[in-house]
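Q: Hi! First time doing this. I have a protein sequence and I read that you can turn it into a structure. Is that right? Here it is:
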Amino acid sequence: MKRLLANVALICFFVSFGVQAATETAKNYQMGAGDTIRITVFGEEDLSLETTLGENGTVSYPYLGLLQATGVSVADFEKEIADGLRGDYLINPSVHVDIIEYRAFYIYGEVKSPGGYPYQPNLTVERAVALAGGFTQRASKEKFELSRKVDGVGQKSTVKLEDEVKPGDSIFVKDSFF
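A: Yes, that's right. Below is the predicted 3D structure, encoded as structure tokens:
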């Protein structure tokens, strides 16, 4: 019985650590065009909304007007809304922002079902290939090119199966010569 309780306690510890790590990752996530977000203000139904960020990356928010969300972390966006509502509108607002659906990443080349797919946290090139139905017979299992915009500038790099994919990335799976 003691051993069972010790194992349960150990499992609970690791699960809570994983949840905390996932929460930290979500709070640091930089929002961008195509993300669907939900803003919730505790106890204020009229101030809660769900929206998809358009190309301009702004959110029209009650009382505060247009707020820039693209390139802003979830945590900073929560703080901006709370600070804007504090004082004139609410005494101590509790604001929470959730990413309902991440913007897409794209995969093409030698995969069975090329196209755009919704991003998932902790996505790797290998998992992206799996989402696209796997490799074709002609695919290189070692040659992948990743295109990513950094500060508005497109960059290309060669990546491996275990490398991370981010929302908005494009992955090109090259063909093998042998």
